[in-house]
Specification:
The chain has helices spanning 16-35, 47-77, 84-105, 112-136, 144-170, 181-213, 220-244, 250-273, 282-306, 311-346, 364-387, 390-415. With 423 residues, it is mainly alpha-helical.
Length: 423
């Protein structure tokens, strides 16, 4: 790995506020879910579930990913982050936008406040896109990882722009779209899932997993095929859905995206086979389980399409947001955040004093309980959704709250770390 060159690590203002806010949002998400378990037994278009989904997608997933991306862009692009001030400004606008949007979603109170919240989120994402484009400079030096980063950020901008139009559409008597609001909602959700989250995670993981496992793969062609199939399936799904509504052809498009996912995972498997670090750490197990959840979600799409009711839609959403995205964040947080904190406190003391290692800055025992409780919470909650049993759903949500408390304790232990050194 000695040939890897990286840019200067960005200042804390471009990274830490995102991690702190994301952790709080995860806790708030679990509290809100516990307060409204009945939301998971109703149609997916209900105010409380809309609030929950947007806290999960924007407050939790996107917030943490923005912070991680600002930290990792210099590593992936081998040059400094284009603008730390722009990164900080995107936190202010994203945070305020999420608060306004989810506040108004709770009672589906359409109007200028909801639209203002959506506009702030679009502006925040636009700042992020500019930072990504200016930092990657893909036309000067091409890599597939950069391509994934750029495409994912553009898909996010497209997603939140359509979301803003949907918010405006709710308050109009003459709709903006030629197809129903619910059909556009499906397109909006999946451009976020397959465009933003999938392609961002695919791009970043193909850089981070080899670093963490001390492995490599020469099969770059797998990543290019992954990029082509993931985008081909998504674009065909969106075009067909916009002009003809979502039909059974969704299975063809899902198969194309699934093919792209398989190519991506084959690349990671090749890295895994050629790794130097044979022992698999607990935090990496979160990552492997997240891949399993993603594959299960893809295989569940025919069941969601042909089944009556909404139970399988709820299970599908749980596999995506909790089994895949949350799982990977729970593991990756303690592979990246400790190095950020360590750099802040000890980078200049290396060789001058006895200093702790990054892994000493958080409570490892809590990550063990986090992993155990995560598995229990996920299985119980998914079982409750599949059976549509409110009591089982409530037990699962109590376990999710426990996961969030443990995660927050460890994240804030890191963020409020005080320097420790001895001569």
């Amino acid at each position: 790995m000695a040939h890897i060159h990286i840019g200067r690590a960005p200042g804390n203002k471009a990274v830490l506020p995102f991690y702190a806010t994301g952790a709080v949002a995860f806790l708030v998400l679990c509290i809100v879910m516990l307060c409204t378990p009945q939301s998971f037994t109703q149609h997916y278009f209900n105010p409380h579930l809309l609030t929950i989904v947007h806290i999960a997608a924007l407050g939790w997933g996107t917030m943490i990913i923005f912070g991680a991306a600002h930290q990792l862009l210099p590593v992936i692009c081998e040059r400094d982050l284009y603008s730390e001030n722009m990164a900080a400004a995107s936190w202010y606008t994203l945070t305020l936008g999420i608060i306004l949007l989810t506040w108004k979603f709770w009672n589906l109170d359409t109007g200028c406040v909801m639209i203002a919240g959506g506009s702030l989120i679009v502006f925040s994402v636009l700042l992020f896109v500019i930072n990504v484009l200016k930092t990657t400079r893909i036309f000067r030096k091409f890599t597939t990882q950069k391509l994934f980063l750029i495409s994912s950020s553009l898909w996010l901008l497209f997603t939140v722009s359509v979301g803003l139009l949907l918010a405006i559409n709710l308050g109009l008597t003459s709709p903006i779209f030629r197809v129903s609001h619910l059909e556009i909602l499906k397109l909006h959700a999946h451009m976020g899932i397959a465009g933003w989250f999938l392609q961002l995670i695919a791009g970043v993981s193909t850089k981070l997993v080899p670093m963490f496992l001390l492995g490599k793969s020469e099969k770059e062609h797998l990543l290019k095929k992954a990029f082509i199939f993931q985008n081909l399936g998504l674009i065909l799904f969106l075009v067909d859905g916009f002009f003809f509504e979502v039909t059974a052809r969704v299975m063809i498009y899902a198969a194309l995206v699934l093919t792209g996912i398989v190519f991506w995972l084959l690349f990671l498997f090749d890295v895994f086979r050629n790794r130097l670090r044979k022992r698999i750490e607990l935090l990496m197990k979160h990552t492997f389980l997240s891949f399993l959840s993603l594959m299960l979600a893809m295989l569940l799409i025919p069941v969601v399409y042909y089944s009556e009711g909404y139970r399988w839609t709820m299970v599908y959403g749980t596999l995506i947001f909790l089994g895949w995205i949350t799982n990977i964040i729970l593991g990756k947080t303690f592979k990246t955040l400790p190095f950020i904190i360590w750099n802040t406190h000890y980078k200049d003391l290396t060789g001058k004093a006895k200093i702790p290692l990054p892994k000493d800055l958080f409570n490892a025992k809590l990550t063990i309980w986090q992993f155990r409780l995560f598995i229990a919470a996920f299985l119980v909650f998914a079982l409750g959704l599949a059976l549509q049993q409110l009591t089982v759903i409530r037990i699962g949500l109590v376990l999710w709250l426990a996961v969030a408390v443990i995660y927050c304790l460890n994240v804030f232990k890191l963020i409020f770390h005080q320097s420790k050194k001895s001569a």
